[in-house]
Design goal:
9 helices; 265 residues; two-stranded parallel sheet; alpha/beta; six-stranded parallel sheet; TIM Barrel
Length: 265
């Protein structure tokens, strides 16, 4: 899943793809590099980010969603807004990427009505209330894997009750969302436990995130490629079905070579 942030303030590439031409070029780039999904978002999910009104989100993403769908891409829209999701699904998106752990059950109803997939990411609270990058109380979880699994299952239950087909659900443990760096590392280290214990495919988004600075303190988002690739290889090895990444070609190379080394060319 290749990331297309149509925003001025995303943590890793804010503003780079905000213009219509730049966003279309980004879609073309992701598809050329082999992305299976194009994930289009018009609202930053970085800590402290303010909500973006529906009209403004749609002004950023709707034409990009249409363009990507016309190019034959499977498009997911990264939004927590039912109105934005509905418009983008009508424009050709096939999935909604909800980073709020279904804070608004109306979003699930929109997904259910369209027959789309719902990527449901574990989180606690809003982005605006998040304290900072990988900043969260160490004692906020008993066992982070057990707690994340339980809270995600509760949210997925609400989605199914709202009409979402269980076969269309995807679980994302939400690395970096309401978690400190150690929490995110533990979730990645024990990803196999989640994969084997939730009734849905698992998606992982580790690309360029701040918890990767555990191995390189001070590294800026664009300086975290090596750690991002290591995280992707580990996640794929442990059963993740979807990897949400900024660097599609590099990630595919790393995974494909690892598999070739394990099984032969």
């Amino acid at each position: 899943m290749g990331v297309c942030n149509v925003t001025p303030d995303s943590f890793s590439d804010g503003g780079r793809y905000l213009g219509a031409d730049a966003a279309r070029a980004r879609v073309d780039e992701l598809l050329a590099e082999g992305a299976d999904f194009v994930d289009v978002g018009g609202e930053s999910t970085r800590p402290g980010a303010a909500p973006v009104p529906v009209k403004e989100q749609l002004g950023r993403v709707l034409d990009v969603v249409r363009y990507a769908a016309e190019r034959g891409a499977c498009v997911s829209v990264d939004t927590t807004s039912p109105a934005v999701a509905a418009a983008c699904l009508d424009a050709g998106a096939c999935a909604v990427n909800d980073v709020s752990c279904l804070r608004d059950v109306e979003l699930a109803k929109v997904v259910a009505a369209s027959g789309a997939a719902l990527l449901l990411m574990h989180a606690r609270g809003t982005q605006e209330a998040m304290r900072g990058f990988s900043e969260y109380p160490a004692d906020a979880y008993g066992d982070v894997v057990d707690d994340v699994r339980r809270e995600w299952l509760e949210a997925s239950g609400r989605a199914v009750a709202a009409g979402v087909d269980p076969a269309g659900l995807v679980m994302d443990p939400g690395l970096g969302f309401a978690k400190n760096a150690r929490h995110s590392l533990e979730l990645l280290r024990r990803l196999g436990e989640l994969v084997s214990s939730v009734p849905a495919p698992v998606a992982v988004g580790a690309s360029r995130k701040s918890f990767l600075m555990l191995v390189d303190p001070g590294a800026q988002p664009l300086e975290r490629l090596g750690a991002s690739l290591a995280a992707a290889v580990r996640a794929a090895h442990d059963g993740a079905s979807i990897l949400r990444v900024h660097d599609v070609r590099a990630t595919a190379q790393a995974i494909d070579l690892t598999r070739a080394l394990e099984t032969g060319p």
